[in-house]
Structure to design on (375 residues):
């Protein structure tokens, strides 16, 4: 398959790492990039946080020394703030790609009219996109957007969102084949991705239920998508990007690491976190990844709990040494969902009267300065 083209950007392998709150920091992006070519997006940040120079927000804008294509996902509900934040990212942080989040299903985001709720307001969506594209164009930076099918099956937005994106000069659109009401439950609707591909002329990236490299190839074949966005499938499995690069190059290699090779990846991950955050904080940040790395392996509960409480690299090394390094990868985990799933929601949290009309002539409610939840 050919490289993914996003405006002036050429991505050798048509694979994008989905922004995930608390996950896709500089260390994790570096770890995944070491496995294969692709575009690796920073965890979502808020436009207001950038404009107001919020310390927590700016602390998230850290890039690894080897990141040659800096990519950031931006969240906001006010066109002026999103445009200004885009200008700051391009001018001061050397960002080469700005992605806008219109897909987050988290209630504290949607109840403010943000994330996956915002595309219901077509006018507001267009204003945000136009401000962002104009700000980024001055620096030759492409803008993309990520969205979902809609708020629920009765309030679908993705086809209108695709049209508005194209008219606004957006370089590509990523579609997660679920509604906000579904969150991460159920199955992703790949047919919706195919419909969006037919509906617009800009590249469409498919997202949802890519657990193995073969899933990515199948999605592209079935939908006509120009590439894929991978999120939960790479949790505890950064080598998935190696498989994806091989698959799109025409090889059918599937990585089945032994527990010893997984332990080496865990060590590398923690080492990178320590380099960026300091050893103690880096070790604390790594704790959340332990269960994903060891999913399906026979490592005992006591050892798992100890690994999830590490505070130093020496402590990590001592615990990893206790693993059975020859244990084969649990093939039962191949193709299995990873990360959060949850249940569908009976009702999506929305601002009062949000569904009354689709025009949306005013600006959305103000987002929190340090809102970091992605989706």
């Amino acid at each position: 398959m050919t490289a993914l083209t996003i405006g002036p950007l050429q991505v050798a392998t048509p694979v994008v790492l989905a922004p995930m709150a608390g996950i896709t920091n500089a260390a994790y992006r570096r770890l995944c990039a070491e496995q294969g070519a692709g575009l690796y997006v920073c965890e979502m940040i808020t436009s207001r946080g950038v404009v107001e120079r919020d310390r927590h927000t700016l602390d998230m804008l850290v890039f690894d020394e080897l990141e040659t294509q800096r990519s950031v996902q931006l969240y906001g509900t006010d066109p002026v703030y999103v445009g200004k934040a885009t200008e700051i990212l391009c001018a001061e942080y050397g960002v080469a790609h700005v992605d806008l989040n219109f897909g987050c299903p988290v209630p504290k985001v949607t109840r403010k009219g943000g994330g996956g709720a915002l595309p219901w307001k077509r006018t507001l969506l267009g204003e945000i996109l136009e401000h962002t594209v104009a700000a980024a164009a001055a620096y030759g930076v492409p803008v993309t957007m990520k969205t979902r099918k809609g708020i629920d099956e009765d309030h679908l937005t993705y086809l209108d969102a695709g049209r508005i994106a194209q008219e606004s000069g957006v370089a590509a659109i990523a579609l997660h084949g679920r509604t906000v009401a579904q969150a991460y439950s159920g199955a992703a609707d790949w047919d919706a991705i195919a419909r969006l591909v037919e509906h617009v002329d800009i590249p469409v990236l498919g997202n949802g239920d890519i657990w193995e490299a073969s899933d990515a190839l199948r999605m592209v074949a079935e939908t006509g998508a120009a590439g894929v966005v991978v999120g939960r499938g790479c949790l505890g499995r950064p080598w998935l990007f190696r498989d994806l690069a091989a698959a799109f190059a025409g090889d059918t290699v599937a990585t089945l690491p032994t527990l010893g090779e997984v332990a080496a990846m865990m060590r590398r991950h923690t080492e990178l976190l320590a380099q960026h955050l300091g050893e103690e904080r880096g070790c604390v940040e790594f704790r959340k990844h332990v269960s994903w790395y060891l999913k399906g392996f026979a490592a005992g509960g006591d050892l798992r709990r100890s690994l999830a409480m590490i505070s130093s690299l020496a402590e990590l090394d001592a615990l990893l040494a206790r693993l059975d390094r020859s244990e084969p990868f649990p093939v039962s985990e191949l193709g299995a969902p990873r990360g959060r799933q949850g249940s569908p929601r009976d009702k999506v949290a929305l601002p009062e009267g949000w569904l009354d009309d689709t025009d949306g002539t005013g600006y959305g409610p103000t987002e929190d300065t340090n809102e970091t939840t992605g989706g």
